[in-house]
Specification:
This protein has 138 residues and is of the alpha/beta class. Helix content is 38%, strand content 12%. A four-stranded parallel sheet has the order 3-2-1-4, covered by helices on one side.
Length: 138
């Protein structure tokens, strides 16, 4: 089974994933703000591998102007059901479907491991291009 097929395997259980997947602690977003030296409020954020939108919703609650990027059909459909007013773009972390300098922050909440590790340096370079003022890929 390839990394991509494992990532897409979540499609079969999108409803269960949304119902059971634990959320993220508020301290995580405090740390993001501290590490980037900027508030999430009004930051342009792309949540890569957004799944059903768990991190996306929390980023939005912090005031971020957030979009989701998700490769899976069922996960993207569940995302749209749960967050109907948040844009979702079909794509994955291996080839970001985003314009250069279009975002302030790129998040891979629980999806970095689904990227192709033989291309991870290229993915990091692509992420740097998308982020308006590069801080760090962590």
């Amino acid at each position: 089974m390839t990394t991509s097929s494992r990532a897409h395997s979540f499609n079969a259980a999108a409803d269960q994933y949304a119902a059971s997947r634990p959320s993220y602690p508020p301290a995580l977003f405090d740390c993001i703000e501290q590490l980037t030296s900027r508030p999430l409020a009004s930051a342009r954020v792309a949540d890569i591998g957004a799944g059903t939108g768990i991190a996306t919703a929390l980023l939005r609650e912090r005031g971020a102007d957030v979009i989701g990027v998700e490769p899976g059909d069922a996960m993207a459909a569940k995302f749209h059901t749960l967050l109907p007013d948040v844009p979702i773009i079909r794509g994955d972390g291996n080839a970001l479907p985003l314009a250069d300098a279009s975002h302030d922050l790129i998040a891979y909440a629980q999806s970095w491991q689904w990227t192709d590790t033989t291309r991870s340096v290229c993915v990091e370079e692509a992420a740097k291009a998308v982020v308006a003022s590069y801080v760090e890929v962590a």
